[in-house]
Design a protein that fits this description.
The protein is about 55% helix and about 10% strand. By secondary structure, it is α+β, with helices and mostly antiparallel strands. The two termini are about 45 Å apart.
């Protein structure tokens, strides 16, 4: 079994040259959070995840969480590891110091989040949901609620969940039926059932804080009538609230993570019938508030795609170096050699490497935009950075999770028949990765957001902002004398033209011919993802010119990876463009009853 080695050097390169961590460190609130600080944090984070979290990954897959009499026992070692995670201050890394956090930029937090997910995707889901709960409370909670809940969530004494989905209401939250009954003391009694609640019940913390969507008695129908409530498992006076775990799901992957069915108002607690909760913010604005949590989670799930891709790549590369089979096609050896010497194995490994590094670069660049959107002194620049970040969120989520599956699948292929055998461990990454394009909004939902809110709404203005940035990078590459830079510039230019064609098509058809625009929504998202990731790798190519002789090997690897991305992956943009522009009619051509 291969071990996990955090790619700290690559992360620091991206933070320095793509996210601009030293410039972020000069912004108000991020004092001294520079590259030196990032290096110290990332090195310590790497040690913790390599030594404590990663060794639990395989055992958790083999010994999933279990439920008995409403009590969930997590996989062996998880509870102790979470205590170490919490005591190390990792939950509060990017949250405000006023509540016990460290207040570091999201860019640094994102790199650490990737490590945690690479080390153990199932384990990392618990902190991910707590991060979302903290963000939602910071935005919409009252001062008293913030003081009561956030410090405990940051300390890890408590954890958080997000309760949206119901049996009849998956992505369509207009169908939510859970109800909230007002009480004379100003509290509410919550009744209903929620499904797919990640870490909805577990034994790793003293308390669990559920953020729950429900309807008030006089609420208008649809999404405009949904309110958000905070419902703790254990109340402040120590009484067990009336929220219980009815079952946990048996899943394809992320088996160690308990995915719970929660029942509210079954009269099993110590408070009578109905779980006691508090309204967060204003009534009937719950979906608006929950989107804060969902957006944070969507970015985080995108990082999970990068993380599982990195872990699958490391395992495949280690296997390819060790597995001896067949003589090389170039006749360089009369004996069988390690399969890493065979061209197609090398093609697969380079594809895995390029997709992973490209997705990471895109995610960390976006995190830098998030930090600027919160800390730039100029209000107009701050607002534009937030808008830029919001544009990239569906790409980080959708593109990164899609390539996570591709990379994990290639990892199985590199292993050959042994990859199909569970004992090698390659299949776990493939199984774990499969959920990432589904939860927190499927790829189609991310793509619909990209089409509707991020492109059609302003006639393609925001989407077109990417054109100028990519053009500048392409021109800088074209001005270089190296053949690799010239070739990468040409491929980047081809991808950019494909992107412009699609943005124009989507902006022009989203209202007049919505089926045509939305039939190509996922191809559009993937095209934009390849372009944005390729752009960041191209920026990295240029940035390697600043590295010294001691980094010559690293610099050459970064340039080669970027050039491979240009030669093998950016050409996909042309085919995706053609699918969007010329393929819409065939998508909807057959009658629905044909299927």
């Amino acid at each position: 079994m291969s071990t996990y080695q955090a790619p700290v050097r690559d992360m620091l390169f991206d933070l320095e040259h793509l996210a601009g961590i030293d410039a972020i460190a000069e912004l108000p609130g991020f004092d001294d959070a520079n590259l030196e600080t990032a290096a110290a944090v990332l090195e310590e984070c790497a040690r913790f995840n390599q030594d404590v979290i990663a060794p639990l990954n395989r055992d958790g897959d083999l010994q999933p969480s279990t439920l008995r009499d409403g009590v969930v026992t997590t996989s062996p070692g998880f509870a102790d590891a979470f205590r170490q995670f919490a005591s190390g201050g990792w939950q509060g890394l990017q949250h405000p110091s006023a509540y016990g956090g460290q207040g570091l930029p999201k860019a640094i937090g994102a790199a650490c989040m990737e490590m945690l997910n690479s080390a153990n995707l199932s384990f990392a889901l618990c902190p991910l949901l707590s991060d979302g709960a903290i963000e939602a409370l910071l935005t919409a909670g009252s001062g008293e609620q913030q003081q009561r809940y956030i410090p405990h969530l940051i300390s890890g004494r408590w954890t958080g969940t997000m309760n949206l989905t119901e049996p009849q209401a998956g992505s369509d939250l207009a169908l939510v039926r859970s109800r909230a009954q007002p009480q004379p003391d100003g509290s509410y009694r919550i009744f209903g059932q929620k499904i797919f609640i990640t870490f909805g019940e577990h034994d790793m913390a003293e308390n669990i804080v559920h953020l729950v969507l429900a309807r008030l008695p006089d609420a208008p129908p649809g999404v405009k009538g949904i309110s958000l409530f905070v419902v703790p498992k254990v109340l402040a006076d120590g009484r067990r609230n009336d929220v219980w775990c009815a079952s946990i799901e048996h899943k394809l992957g992320i088996k160690a993570s308990p995915t719970a069915v929660l029942v509210y108002g079954d009269d099993k607690g110590e408070v009578g019938a109905g779980a006691i909760g508090e309204l967060i913010g204003e009534a009937n604005r719950g979906l608006e508030y929950m989107f804060i949590m969902m957006n944070a989670a969507r970015y985080a799930v995108g990082l999970q795609g990068v993380a599982v891709a990195e872990r699958a790549y490391q395992k495949a590369a280690a296997y390819a170096r060790d597995r001896v089979q067949s003589r090389p096609v170039d006749g360089s050896s009369v004996d069988a050699v390690a399969i890493v010497h065979h061209p197609d194995v090398r093609r697969m490994l380079m594809t895995m490497r390029a997709l992973t590094e490209g997705a990471r670069a895109l995610a960390l660049y976006a995190a830098g935009l998030h930090d600027r959107g919160h800390a730039l002194p100029d209000a107009q620049q701050r607002a534009q950075a937030r808008t830029d970040y919001e544009f990239f969120v569906p790409l980080v989520k959708g593109f990164s999770t899609e390539i996570g599956i591709e990379v994990a699948s290639l990892g199985v292929q590199v292993h050959g028949g042994m990859g199909f055998i569970e004992e090698t461990g390659a299949a776990q990454y493939y199984r774990d990765a499969r959920i990432l394009t589904i939860y927190e909004g499927t790829t189609a939902i991310q793509a619909n957001d990209l089409v509707g809110r991020k492109t059609a709404r302003d006639g393609g203005a925001q989407a077109s902002r990417l054109v100028a940035d990519v053009t500048a990078t392409r021109d800088a590459l074209a001005a270089r004398a190296e053949p690799g830079a010239q070739a990468l510039a040409a491929r980047l230019g081809d991808a950019l033209r494909a992107y412009q064609d699609v943005v124009g098509f989507v902006a022009g058809h989203a209202r007049s011919a919505p089926n045509a625009a939305y039939a190509g929504s996922v191809p559009y998202l993937m095209l934009a993802g390849y372009l944005a990731a390729g752009w960041q790798l191209a920026r990295g190519w240029l940035a390697t010119q600043q590295l010294g002789a001691d980094d010559a090997g690293f610099a050459q690897a970064k340039r080669t990876t970027a050039e491979f991305f240009g030669a093998h992956l950016l050409p996909r943009c042309g085919a995706l463009r053609d699918a969007v522009l010329f393929g819409a009619d065939s998508v909807m051509a057959l009658p629905a009853e044909t299927f």
